[in-house]
Automatic annotation (TrEMBL):
One of its GO terms (molecular function) is diguanylate cyclase activity. The keyword Nucleotidyltransferase applies. This is diguanylate cyclase. It catalyses: 2 GTP = 3',3'-c-di-GMP + 2 diphosphate. Its EC number is 2.7.7.65.
Length: 348
């Protein structure tokens, strides 16, 4: 299959996939997108049979079922290929649009020059013998204008297609963002941490950042299990959300927060000095320590919230696993030294 044909088919599959996701109330995630894309591509009949079955039974396909179908019939390579095809299509449409703009410009100047010629001839003729020539030139001008109109119409159509693809790409980016985000806190999730932490270490080693100090801050809500046990799981969730809100209010723009586990968080951030790093962690710790939660209507049953912090400064060429281990060790020390405190990893 040549590139143009595959590209035009790919556009058809892309356009068909989205209405299906809307119709069957499936979010526009890369995985949902990929399975519908393959459905219309028709290369994997067993995928079509399974998806048809699921849809006819449930009138939707849950995220876990979609993942199951994806894992069974497709691979991460398929997902990457699909993403590549969507990117390629987007770029191609962009290039064609540029070409058309240039063509339209050329056509416009062609038309202008013909009109100029007509005016010139007009000024020259003073006898009827030139009327035929003039008629011919007029026709040429009309044709040129018609050509310009049709090019403009083509460009409009192309703009519509271009915007559609742009929207699709935006939807894909949004779904990627959602895939990286923890829904309870709005922070990045563990998967994102695992993929970001290596870059964080590498960028610092390669000195591509201006800041002199990079650090990993790991913190964990103290005795969190007791909130769940004594107040219920929902109140436990509320504690996590309250803590997340406080952290957000005290963040710097050079810091990124991740929900590392249940009630454990990581912050990667850049600072000018160690004092700045410690002050930053202390500030968040103190703000969290001002929080409390109580059972509904039970004013006497109030429970203070606190968190313990472990800090590890990044040394150039440190492996991410070593950095995480050091922050974790500092956090462990903070816990064993009484909680609600900040500890720095000892080997810095
Ligand atoms: N409500 C709620 N609980 C969670 C969530 N994720 C994990 N948990 C619970 O969090 C608790 C974590 O408890 P531990 O890690 O033992 O912490 P802890 O011993 O209470 O406290 P420290 O020793 O101070 O760390 C477990 O009971 C988990 O079930 C969540 O999203 N919401």
């Amino acid at each position: 299959m040549n590139n143009a044909v595959s590209l035009s088919h790919s556009a058809q599959y892309l356009k068909k996939a989205v209405p299906m996701m809307v119709k069957y109330r499936m979010p526009v995630t890369p995985i949902n997108y990929a399975i519908w894309y393959c459905y219309f591509q028709g290369n994997k009949p067993s995928l079509n049979i399974e998806l048809d079955q699921v849809i006819s039974e449930h009138q939707t396909c849950t995220q876990s079922k979609a993942k199951e179908i994806f894992d069974k019939h497709l691979s991460d390579e398929d997902l990457a290929l699909f993403q590549e095809m969507s990117d390629k299509f987007h770029n191609t449409v962009e290039n064609i649009q540029q070409d058309i703009s240039i063509t339209l410009g050329h056509s416009k100047s062609f038309s202008t020059s013909l009109i100029d010629s007509q005016n010139e001839i007009n000024s020259l003729i003073d006898t009827n013998s030139f009327n035929d020539i003039l008629g011919c030139v007029e026709r040429l001008t009309d044709e040129s204008i018609a050509m310009q109109d049709s090019a403009r119409e083509f460009q409009t159509k192309l703009s519509v297609a271009y915007n559609e693809i742009k929207d699709l790409k935006e939807a894909l980016n949004l779904s990627k963002e959602a895939a990286d985000t923890d829904p309870l806190t709005g922070f990045y999730n563990r998967g994102k941490f695992d993929s970001d932490i290596n870059d964080f270490c590498r960028e610092y080693s390669e000195q591509t950042t201006e800041s002199s100090l990079a650090a990993l801050i790991m913190f964990d809500i103290d005795h969190f299990k007791r909130f769940n046990d004594d107040f219920g799981h929902q109140k436990g969730d509320e504690v996590i959300k309250l803590v997340a809100k406080k952290v957000k209010e005290n963040l710097t723009d050079k810091a990124k927060v991740y929900r590392y586990g249940g009630e454990e968080f990581c912050i990667t951030a850049y600072f000018d000095t160690i004092n700045d790093l410690v002050a930053f962690a202390e500030c968040i710790r103190q703000e969290i320590a001002k929080l409390a939660i109580r059972k509904k209507q039970d004013v006497n049953n109030k429970r203070a919230i606190s968190a313990s912090f472990g800090l590890a400064m990044l040394r150039p060429f440190t492996k991410s696993s070593v950095l995480v281990e050091r922050a974790d060790r500092a956090l462990y020390i903070a816990k064993t030294h009484g909680r609600n405190r900040v500890e720095i990893a000892p080997d810095i």
